[in-house]
Amino acid sequence: MLNLVLFGPPGAGKGTQSQKLIEKYGLIHLSTGDLLRSEIAQGTDLGLEAKKLMDQGILVPDAVVISMISHKLDANKEAKGFIFDGFPRTVAQAEALDQLLESKNAPISGMVALEVNDTELEQRLLLRGKDSGRPDDANPEVIRKRIKEYNDKTAPVAGFYQSQNKFKSINGIGSVEEIFNTIGAVIDSY
After folding, report:
1. Which of 14, 124, 166, 168 is catalytic?
2. For all residues of the chain together, what is the average pLDDT?
């Protein structure tokens, strides 16, 4: 089973590359945001708990998110693997994810980080904001804050996987195909 953490700051190209990787490798995209929305829409106990917290402006606890991931894994036992997108965001989440996956005998195969400088990220997000309609992609100040949040809180997760020899950093600047081919070469080496 191929379990891949696709990693990088907002605007690095994770969404674009995820779609191509799903098609090539037959993986299931596991986005925690999508999971939360799905559990809420289905009215599950976890979804109701998450909605109650979200409605209060409280972050959904890691234990709830891990439970949702566990349900998704159990519902797709025949999967070739998963792409984790937007999770883990902290070292504590990476540790919890590792414990969950090890209990299912399906550890993380590797983390591929798309490296893109802050200036390029800001330009990409502003461009995306013109099409997406997302207000967080249209405001340079908000974009800089999101990038700083990533650099301060999420980037340290790379060290967690580096210590396990599961981390590979690649240049996230270039054509979509060039970047995809580089990611594919990394995956094919697992």
Report:
1. 14
2. 91
* First vs last C-alpha separation in the chain: 10
Catalytic residue among 24, 52, 134, 145: 134
Note if 128 is an active site residue.
Answer: yes
The continuous run of DSSP H or E covering 27 comes out as none
| Active-site position among 124, 146, 166, 168 | 146
User: Within 10 A of 49 (CB to CB), how many other CB atoms are there?
Assistant: 16
Please report the pLDDT score of residue 98 as a whole number: 96
Token match 């697992």: residue? 190
- Segment 131-166, tens digit of pLDDT: 877 777 888 988 898 898 888 888 899 999 999 999
For the question of residue 124 being annotated catalytic, the response is no
Specify whether the CB–CB gap between 170 and 183 falls below 8 A: yes
| d(C-alpha 136, C-alpha 124), whole Å | 12
Of 20, 37, 51, 89, the catalytic one is 89
Does the active-site annotation cover 37? no
Quick check: pTM over 0.70?
yes
